[in-house]
Amino acid sequence: MSHTIVTIVGSLRKESFSLKIANALAKLAPASLKLDVTTLEGISFFNQDLEANPPADWLAFREKLQKSNGVLFITPEYNRSIPGVLKNAIDVASRPYGKSSFLGKPVGIVSNSPGALGGVSAAKHLQNILPGIAGPILGQPEIYLNGVGDAFDDKGQLTKEAVQKVLQQYIAAFAAFIENQNK
Ligand SMILES: Cc1cc2nc3c(=O)[nH]c(=O)nc-3n(C[C@H](O)[C@H](O)[C@H](O)COP(=O)(O)O)c2cc1C
């Protein structure tokens, strides 16, 4: 049986490395996983007042998460944390109170950066944010991808072998984790 994983891309940028990594992971994933690469374009700003009559984009995002077998975050690092657009989407999905759409969903976190530190602070911030509203987070292997700036060709295909190898290992471990959590 194939498990659907909502793969949330934490950047809106057209040429986003996070998006390219999500697409690469979707290709590397074993047959047991279907990665639904999801960008956050069009998710309205969270405003608790709107909860009485939630925007259609919130409802669609929440429903997609609820129907999934797990969630994979592919996040860049902005100023040593996650981008605001990603925090907004998490806030949207975490409500109404007690009814988080992430509840019970196993989670993976893949941070990345063209810089040397691989977005590790962003990943650590996600590890702080999620435990109260989501299911278990895959702890090992950890993955903080650095040097992604020269990892793709001009068609967006992953060409850097070292990155490919790490992604392959990660998605295999994540597939086993998902299998286990959805038993
Ligand atoms: C507002 C802003 C803040 C950033 N802060 C960091 C940072 O703290 N650490 C880091 O490694 N890169 C930082 N960067 C560089 C991003 O890693 C780089 O722009 C990356 O390409 C963004 O991800 P994307 O390619 O998925 O859009 C920052 C970029 C922006 C635009």
TrEMBL record:
Transmembrane segments: none annotated. Pfam families: FMN_red. It comes from the Bacteria. Coiled coil: none annotated. InterPro entries: Flavoprotein-like_sf, FMN_Rdtase-like_dom, NAD(P)H-dep_reductase. SUPFAM superfamilies: Flavoproteins. Residues 5-145 form the NADPH-dependent FMN reductase-like domain. This is Chromate reductase.
